[in-house]
Structures are given as structure tokens and as C-alpha cells.
Amino acid sequence: MHELSIASSIIDSVTKEVKKHDVRSVYEIKLRIGELTAVVPDSLRFGFESLVKDTFLEHTQLTIETSKIEGECIDCKRGFTVENFNFICPHCSSKQVDIISGNELEILSIEIEK
Ligand SMILES: [Zn+2]
């Protein structure tokens, strides 16, 4: 399961981060996930919750924000939002498209209690 290993690496990085700062508990972890990663937020949340049981992250709220895939046409240089994985320029129908964003999987913030 893809999401479980992602949840595990998120927990690893959060754990590393809070250890540096002598933190007792974490209120909230905010994530941003691009649509292109094909990560299912509910599965990720489920994986996270099963992994943090009986750890200091057990009561941490996981907030997941998804971001759209943004493309830029190589032919007409115009930007657009990719809907339904349709990677064709809506302005000139070119298939030469650069992906600008949508592939991110990042921790936006960690809310802590000292
Ligand atoms: Zn175009």
C-alpha cells in the first residue's frame, strides 16, 4: 500500500523535527499533496492513524490539502489547470505540455505544544 509508506515517512520526518525542539505533543500536521501523486487522502489518513496508535502522535490531527495539477503549454506558452488527467492544452490542443505543479507531497506545517 502506497499510502502506508508515505504515512510512515511523514511520521519519520515529523518525529525527527520535534525531537530537535523538545516537544511534548503535536496538535496538527498539515500536508499538501498534488493530484499527480495519485495519493488518496482518506487512505493516507487511515494509514497515518493506524501507525500513530500508542505513540506521541496519537492525538494529532492530520490535515490534508490537495493541489491541482498545473501545466504550461510548450507551444503557446499558456498555463492551465489539468482536469481529469487530461494533459492537452485547452488553448491550442497541443500535447506538448510541461507540468508545473501537482507532484508535491510536502509537510506545510507542524503545530506543536511545548
Ligand atoms: Zn497551447
Walkthrough of the structure:
The protein has about 110 residues and is α+β, with helices and mostly antiparallel strands. It has a domain at about 1-70 and about 100-114: hypothetical protein PF0899 fold. The chain contains two helices and six strands. The strands form two sheets. It has a three-stranded mixed β-sheet with strand order 2-1-6, covered by helices on one side. A three-stranded antiparallel β-sheet has the order 4-3-5, with no helix packed on it. Helix 1 crosses helix 2 (about 40-50). The chain binds zinc ion. The site of zinc ion has 8 residues, from loops.
* Helical residues, percent: 25-40%
Q: Figure out the total of helices.
A: 2
CATH level-two architecture of the domain at 2-68 and 102-113: 2-Layer Sandwich
Largest sheet, spatial ordering of strands? 2-1-6
Beta-strand portion reads: 35-45%
The succession of helices and strands, N to C, reads HEHEEEEE
Instruction: State mean pLDDT (0 to 100 scale).
Output: 94
Pick out the low-confidence regions: none
Q: Cα distance, first to last residue?
A: 34 Å
Largest sheet: 3 strands, mixed
Annotated CATH topology of the domain at 2-68 and 102-113: hypothetical protein PF0899 fold
- Morphology: elongated
Structural class: alpha+beta
For the secondary structure, the number of strands is 6
Instruction: Look at the structure and give the CATH class of the domain at 2-68 and 102-113.
Output: Alpha Beta
- Bound ligands: zinc ion
Radius of gyration (CA) equals 18 Å
